[in-house]
Design a protein that fits this description.
Length: 622
């Protein structure tokens, strides 16, 4: 009897080995008919070979086979579905995931996701470990997708980003990945009436972890903007669709998105404090580990959600309005701006234009709803405010994207208005002390002038922080001719013109007799240290550029010590400019010098007139 059983087992094993050999041959030669015959028509039942068959079939589900042998590809899919339906889920899961270690073939990856989803759904409800292994493997493929290139496209041109191969690949894979996750999310969803939702459920925590990873990469680098008033629903980009579907899944797992972000920030703060304590009190820290070993272990080993994920999440909710219903309405606008400063900073620091745009849009959305004078000057002790101001300056002057640069200008102007008079003046003084960019200094001085004008119209007293000694100190910072007569006036033109316009305004607005602003106390120094050197520099610069103009008109080579022409694009110097372009540059420079000369002359003339009028009034009074 035993002999007969052994014989039966051996025959079955031989049949299984024979079937496996036939299957491998069929796959090797892409024999669709033979593959269907062995697996589907004969209804292969020996599970001892299912592992190897699953591996072989999964390895054949490639982009190449789909393009060159579509029928064979579909046959492999049908056979794989049969194996999944009749095999051991735990064994098949490992067999399929073994084929997911290559991060090049997205078609194979998508087929693996489809197979794995069916396998996992066959497992019992307590599938946390299997799901963890699966998501870890699949997430690695998404992380391996290259970061999209920065094309620095403006506004409507950004629609062309959807044609970038990296963006197309990222959105295609992410959309499939989100569909893979959907049934597992819905099992534990807060919207599922058949389950008792718990945010501490292992499956909830696991799914949230891997959804948030997608925010770090690749969504962090994708353009997810959408303006409902300007764009129709059909104009949504695939990047935007990815964002909407991800947020739909995330809100099913997290009823309060703000609490999620707040908890993660608290964890970071707690960890930072612990590290500081470890450094400062090593001996006490050793004792603390003995008494509270478990707590310290939790703090150290608890993996934090990447800050980029939290920043991207906050951007999608607050700037794009996705999942807004899952944000409590109890926080005021001031708190929300302060809370998001670290995220805005990380966005603006990133050189990638799409990431930088997220920072600009988030700051714009949070800032423009806050009334003026909301923040006191004491809040500037928070370095984030000064960091944001410096990043706005850097973006306005150095960002290659014109759209982003222009968006920063009104934000920069309104940023000062958020603070009290003391806070505003402190920020202005910081800019004038630290910024060397003539255009920024000139624009900022124009804002300062508008503030002074507004105060004078309100009839404020002369002891206001923007007047008197503080105004004089500001003028001393900006009314300088650094190299005397040899100063490069073109490089400093924006600042110099703003200073001249401000002086002319004060000469007209504030009579010497009243001297409400305190400006006339400074005027003698301006005549000596600013007007005189500026006049000499204008005369010298005009002389040089007129000689250059004559040389260009005659076709003579320009003396390099006077004028050098070059064109820079993206930091790379291109070839020499044409004669016509040289003429345009020189004529533009001469026009700038004429404008300076005109404003300077008119300002001195007005000031002299005011002083004569004052002297005449004093004589009459005597």
């Amino acid at each position: 009897m035993d002999h007969l059983l052994d014989t039966e087992v051996m025959e079955r094993a031989a049949d299984a080995e024979s079937a496996l050999k036939q299957i491998k041959e069929c796959i090797k030669f892409k024999d669709s008919k033979g593959l269907k015959t062995v697996i589907l028509e004969h209804k292969l039942k020996d599970q001892s070979v299912f592992w190897e068959i699953a591996s072989e079939l999964t390895a054949s589900l490639t982009e190449e086979n789909l393009e060159q042998s579509e029928y064979f590809f579909e046959t492999c899919q049908r056979c794989m579905n049969y194996i999944i339906e009749n095999g051991n889920p735990k064994e098949l899961l490992l067999a399929v995931l073994e084929q997911a270690d290559c991060f090049k073939d997205d078609q194979k990856f998508k087929c693996i996701m489809e197979s794995v989803q069916k396998i996992l759904l066959k497992l019992p409800n307590k599938r946390h470990h299997s799901l963890d292994i699966t998501l870890g493997t699949l997430s690695a493929h998404i992380e391996a997708i290259p970061k999209p290139k920065d094309h620095n496209l403006d506004h409507d041109e950004r629609k062309l980003l959807e044609m970038d191969s990296s963006v197309m690949r990222a959105t295609d894979v992410v959309l499939c990945y989100l569909e893979f996750l959907r049934p597992f999310v819905e099992e534990v969803s807060v919207r599922n009436p058949t389950v008792s939702f718990s945010k501490t459920s292992p499956q909830v925590q696991l799914l949230m972890k891997y959804l948030l990873k997608v925010l770090t990469h690749p969504l962090y680098y994708l353009d997810m903007t959408f303006q409902p008033k300007e764009q129709e629903e059909r104009e949504k980009s695939y990047s935007r669709v990815c964002a909407e579907r991800l947020m739909d899944l995330l809100t099913q797992l997290c009823p309060n998105l703000f609490a999620l972000i707040e908890d993660e920030i608290e964890k970071r703060t707690r960890r930072a404090r612990l590290k500081k304590k470890e450094r400062e009190e090593k001996d006490e820290e050793n004792a603390m580990e003995e008494d509270n070993d478990d707590n310290v272990k939790d703090w150290k080993e608890d993996k934090l959600i990447p800050e980029t994920s939290l920043a991207c999440l906050s951007y999608l909710v607050l700037a794009e309005g996705l999942g807004l219903d899952n944000m409590p309405c109890v926080y005021n606008h001031k708190f929300m701006l302060r809370f998001n400063l670290s995220f805005i900073k990380s966005f603006l620091e990133d050189p990638h234009s799409i990431v930088k745009l997220k920072g600009v849009l988030l700051l714009e959305k949070l800032m423009f709803v806050i009334p003026p004078m909301t923040f006191t000057h004491y809040e500037l002790d928070n370095d984030y405010y000064k960091d944001i101001l410096n990043l706005l300056i850097s973006t306005m002057t150095h960002c290659q994207n014109k759209d982003i640069r222009k968006s920063c200008v009104p934000i920069y102007a309104n940023f000062f208005g958020l603070f009290s008079f003391q806070g505003r003046h402190r920020l202005y003084e910081t800019v004038f002390n630290t910024c060397k960019h003539s255009g920024v200094v000139g624009h900022t001085l124009s804002l300062y002038k508008e503030q002074v004008d507004s105060l004078l119209k309100q009839g404020v007293s002369s002891d206001n922080i923007f007047l008197g000694k503080n105004l004089i100190r500001i003028f001393k910072l900006v009314s300088i001719i650094p190299d005397g007569a040899t100063t490069d006036l073109l490089e400093n033109s924006d600042r110099i013109l703003s200073v001249l316009n401000f002086i002319r305004y004060l000469v007209l607005r504030d009579k010497p007799a009243t001297n409400q602003t305190g400006f006339w106390d400074l005027f003698p120094n301006l005549e000596k240290d600013f007007f005189g050197p500026l006049r000499e520099a204008i005369i010298l610069s005009k002389g040089h550029y007129n000689l250059d103009l004559e040389d260009v008109r005659k076709g003579n080579p320009l003396p390099t010590e006077h004028t050098e022409f070059s064109v820079n694009v993206g930091g790379e110097r291109l070839g020499g400019v044409s004669r016509e372009q040289q003429l345009q540059v020189i004529e533009s420079a001469l026009n700038t010098f004429d404008m300076m000369d005109s404003i300077l002359s008119r300002t001195i003339e007005l000031a002299d007139s005011q002083k004569r009028l004052l002297k005449g009034n004093q004589t009459d009074n005597k």
